[in-house]
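Closing statement on the F0G sub-project.
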Amino acid sequence: MPNHPAEPFRIKMVEPIRLPQREEREAAMKKAGYNLFSLPAEEVFIDLLTDSGTGAMSQHQWAAIMEGDESYAGARSFYHLKESIQKIFGFPYFVPTHQGRAAENILAALLVKPTSAIPSNMHFDTTEANIRARGGRPTNLVNDKAFEVGLRAPFKGNMDLQKLEEFIQATKVENIPFGSITITNNAGGGQPVSYENIKGVSEIYHKYNIPFFIDACRFAENCYFIKQREAGFADKSTLQIANEIFALADGAWMSSKKDAIVNIGGFLAMRDEKLYQAVCNELILREGFPTYGGLAGRDLEALAAGLMEGLDENYLDYRLKQTGYLGERILEAGVPIIEPPGGHAIYIDAGSIFKHIPQSEFPGQALSAALYLEGGIRSVEIGSVMFAHKDPDSGQMVYPQLELVRLAIPRRVYTQSHMDYVVEILKKIADNRQAYRGYRITYAPELLRHFTARFEPL
Ligand code: F0G
């Protein structure tokens, strides 16, 4: 077997992309306030901003789209989705939502109060913001290895069980309306969580009667990592592993734009019937009737198919190897990343490439701007632009431990030569690192500022 297996698909339809001229890229950045989210996608050559909703659907999914049932209530497509969700996740109740954060919003609206604290390994930014928007406190309890950039450990997404126990004891149990875990850990490098750890987390939450919800965006990639890395799982299918994981939880939400390889969609699933009834009321107010939840019938149909396809082991093997290939080549070029490579993305340690740029001047922002200016590549900063905030008690700025730039790989979209191109551009930047400067924020909203902030080069 070659190290990098060929893509397990062939290309039936193509979408042209082009590299704009250097002057065009400079003008586009200036116009965008140096925020890559504000760039028109047409100005981007290789778009690694996110793996969310950017995957290529299969011929089977496109065929399913044509069979979508657009009935307002009780559409056939809803029952197809229900079948997939029950097969994989096993929760008796679920509602579709238009994407992951809509599910987070509903859960937060129903359960989070100003006194609430919600533990997780690491909350993703939208989860964190949904909790904060209700006055709650999101708390990250990932194990310390997650912050050792160069350390190769198999499950760096694991929660620190001792910290979790201590946190629950220090916070009143009645102030923890639910506990969570994110698989894989997106904010911490796309690193997987072991089955053993999820089981330990589940036992602790349940010891204190705290409902356990899994943020399941990238559950399939997590299952394949478990199959490869955790003793006792090599002979189990990814579907069996998923069944075992979700049997440990009281519910889950999923942005299906990731591992279900659809362009839009999500869901919120649970065991508790009372909660489900409250969720339905909230859903009807904000998203739609409980059998479509803000999606078209065709979207439900593509999702029903995509959930099963996302678990295909031929596909997952290629998927994780493509990400691994990009990561290892970047390391060979002398650029530090979070090791080992994650499932959906490579996280470049911008803070250590740009040591001369202090956190208050956004080294991650500087690297992501450079990637675009040098090579038309769009990435996303996961550092101080995204996470630095004023502590409400002390009024001091709190900076994240790492200044990262994420290269997220859309599913089944880019080829190996695109990956090679990205490596070349990164090497060029790293070899000339002293030439780059930091940035200053000229505008930023209070919540989720990275989406709309504007910058000026220093
Ligand atoms: N949870 C995790 C772990 C996520 O990565 C995301 C989205 C969400 C929840 C929210 O889902 O976008 O469908 O509303 N992550 C995307 C990303 C945006 O680029 O990582 P959504």
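The CA atoms of residues 263 and 455 lie 30 Å apart. With this model delivered, the sub-project is considered complete and its resources will be redirected to Aim 3.
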